[in-house]
Each structure stands twice: as C-alpha cells, then as structure tokens.
Amino acid sequence: MFKHLSLLSLLLALIVPSNALAAKAGHVRHVEPTAEKSKGSCADDATWKVVTLGSVDPKTCFKTSDGGGVELQLNGDNSSIKIAENSVVFLDSLVEKNADGFYITKPHIQKGYIGFNVEKNKHNKVDFSTGTAAASIRGTNGFIGGDSLSFMASLESGKLAIFPTGQDSLAISQGETVIGREKFIILKLKSSGDMEFAKKLIDLLADTTKSIDELAAAAIAADQAFQEKLAEKKAAEQETQVAVDTTQKAEEVSSLKAPRISYTGYDSLRCVANVSITDVPKDTETIVQTLMDGTPISEVNVKNSSSKRLKLQSGVHEYEFVVENSAGRSSVQQTLGCYPLKPFSIKVFGLPHEHLQIPPPPPGVEDVIMETLQFQIRIPENDPNFLNRVLVRQDGTVILKETLSQIQNLDYQIPVELKRGHMNRFVIEAIHKSGYVVKTTKVYEVEK
C-alpha cells in the first residue's frame, strides 16, 4: 500500500483577511532546539540556519532533531500545527487561494509527524493528502505522520475522513487512531491525539519486522502503558500540590491576595456561564476575562467578591474564565455548548399531498412502487452539529433515525416504497439541541 509513499502533505485551509499578504500564511511562535530551516531545499547539503520566531516564507524546509520542534500559528484564527522532533517538513506554496476563497497552507512531511489543532467553523477545514491516500477534517486536533512504509493518524477531538487510493474510504473520530501498511486498522485508544503518545506510535511503526496486526496489538499495549504512566504522574503532581498548599497555609499571608474564580454552572439556552469570584481585595483593579478557544471575547472590572454571569457564544467551544489583579491570576476551563432557542423549518419538496396514478405491472411482475422523499432542514446556524435528532416515520413505523454525530447534513433524499391503494403518510421530525421541535407531513396517495 505504501510502497510509493515518499512524503506526507498537510493542507490547512483557513479564512484570512482580504488584505493579507499572499506570501505569509502565519508565523513561528515557538521553537524547541534543535530546529533548523533551509530556503528552497531539504537536501543535507543545503544551507541550514537556526529557526527563529517570525513570519514564515514559502518554500522553506524545517528539520528537527531529538527534542526539537517548531510551532506555527496560521493566519485567520488560533489554528496551529507543530512539527515534531526528528522530522523533515517542506513548506511549499504557503498560501494558495482556492475557488471558494480559502487560503491553503501546504506543509509536505518527508519524515516524522505533525500535530495539529484546527478551530471549528463553517469556513475552516483541513485536507490531508499522501501518495496513496487523502483525508479531510474539520474542527480537529491530533497528529498525523508516518514513513515510506507506514501511515498513522490519531484524533483527540473532531473527525477525520481517509480516502486510500484503490481502497474503500474510512473515518475516525474523537479518541480513535488509524495505522496502515498493507491495510488500515482503526483502534479506540485513550491516548489518541496525544503528541507524547505519537512518539511511542512512530517508534512502533519503524519496526518493519512486525505485521500490521502485530503493530495493532503493540499499539494497544503501548496505550495501556502510556495511560498508567499518566496516572502515576498525576498522582505525584497531586501529592506535590498538597505539600505546596500545606506550606503556603503555614506562611504569612501577603497583604494583597490574588483573586480566585470558580465555575458554578451555565444556561445553554440563554448562553451564559455562572462563575463565583472570591478573595478580591478592596481598592484594587481586578479584571474578569472570558476566552473562547483561546481568543478573548469579553472583559469586565469587579470591585469585590461576587457572582457573575458571563456571556457565551453559539455552538460548542472551549472556554477559559480568568480573574486577575497585580498579585496574580486564577482561571477555570470548561467545554460548553450554547444553543439559543431559534425557530426553524423543514422544507419538503413537492406537494404536501400527492396523488399518484401508476398503472399496475404486467402479470408475473412484482408490484413495487418507489419514490424519493426529499426534504431540507433549515436551521439558522446551517450546521448539522446543532441538531439533536432527525426522525422519519412511514405510517407510524420509524424508517430513519439519526442522532447527534450521526447527522452529517441538512439535505435528505430517502428512497421509500409505497403501497398501492393506500395513503402513504410520512412524518418528518427534527429536534434542535435547544429543544425546539419541528414536525411536518408528506402524503403519497397511490390509486389502485
């Protein structure tokens, strides 16, 4: 399968302002030595320089060694990619505008792997391609990589569709990992999407003596061992924190305290989060800030300890609520879904009640009458992720039921079999995550 795989390319499509320079797709925001770059070539005899912070030019090759890494933030939002250690990545056409007006960044992985964290919105997508496969994601973070023989992709969140050349497509979602050689195997691993676990997985794939099934078993074992180490590390950190807290309580309390903030709940319909702010000193400037997916969206000043209702935005986002003064800061993070109550409709194509005159079939031919039930769910967000359930009944019997992540689009074309001499009644029901319910009916009356 991967006999001819020589590189792996990651295509990041992001909206950027119309006045953005076509030669810049983002910038280097963090470097872990040793990391080098070369203009125009990845050859060993190319002119290599130490990577520094700043904007990224097209046709630049990055090379990292043990412990090295380069993190790139892309224009348009907080989406980023991280080139891992022992990797060689060539950035070809950094910005390429497609027919839909998107700007595409193209890193080609020649060796190693890349981590990615791509924000989710209807204008933002990520496309991968290799010599033998293509893949597409939206609102996803995880990693992808491999070598001349092997392929791996792993998601902490989001979805990834993979299209191998000459094979059926497959898909992975949150918490899943796919590895491939002569075939692809999908694994449900707790460590999926973790960049530290990626190091373990890339080492396993480097062992060419193992079959793909043996590699799958080894990956499962590595996942279990990795989780055990994480648990041990967390326990040690908790013990350390207890010791630190005990020491702090024994010390003299400073005249100026850092405020504290805690999350107490939220209202998904009104789109507000409730927080409690304590230890606010009098006559000091204290700021409460809300960050959504890493971007500040609101800021207020408080003068005393109190409860606050902070505004959220529609959809599912990662929020951080921060309180800060000159003595220090405190924050709390929550993933919250906000679904304001908004009316929507279901458009059924054709007349609500259709009369069908269909001649009976010739003798000896089965009397089968087929129609296509076509409808469109029109929600304000125009995003199927805002739907909780779609249900279709034919004469009281459920013929289609989709919930949550099963709902992939808003347009439906369902082949249905009708009964002759009968009023075939279809009831279509859609439930928004806000709880708003819409029902509509379509009738096919077939004469005898």
Structure description:
With 448 residues, the chain is mainly beta. It folds into three domains: 8-228, Jelly Rolls, CATH 2.60.120.1440; 260-338, Immunoglobulin-like (Sandwich), CATH 2.60.40; 345-446, Immunoglobulins (Immunoglobulin-like). Helix content is 11%, strand content 50%. It has helices at residues 195-205, 212-250; strands at 8-14, 26-32, 35-39, 49-50, 54-55, 60-64, 69-74, 80-83, 88-91, 96-97, 103-105, 107-117, 125-130, 133-146, 151-164, 170-173, 176-180, 184-188, 260-267, 272-278, 286-292, 295-302, 306-311, 315-325, 328-338, 345-348, 353-356, 369-378, 387-394, 397-403, 411-418, 422-432, 437-446. The strands form five sheets. The chain has an 18-stranded antiparallel sheet that branches. Strand 14 (133-146) and strand 15 (151-164) form a beta hairpin. Helix 1 (195-205) runs antiparallel to helix 2 (212-250). The radius of gyration is 27 Å and the shape is globular. Residues 1-23 have low confidence and may be disordered.
Given as residue ranges, the uncertain stretches (5+ residues, pLDDT < 50) are 1-23
What structural category characterises the helix and strand content? mainly beta
- The top level CATH class name of the largest domain: Mainly Beta
Rounded to an integer in angstroms, the radius of gyration calculated over CA atoms is 27 Å
**CATH topology of the largest domain, which one?**
Jelly Rolls
Domain unit count:
3
Mean of all residue-level pLDDT scores: 83
Please report the total strand number as a whole number. Answer: 33
Level-2 CATH architecture of the largest domain: Sandwich
Amino-to-carboxy terminus distance: 56 Å
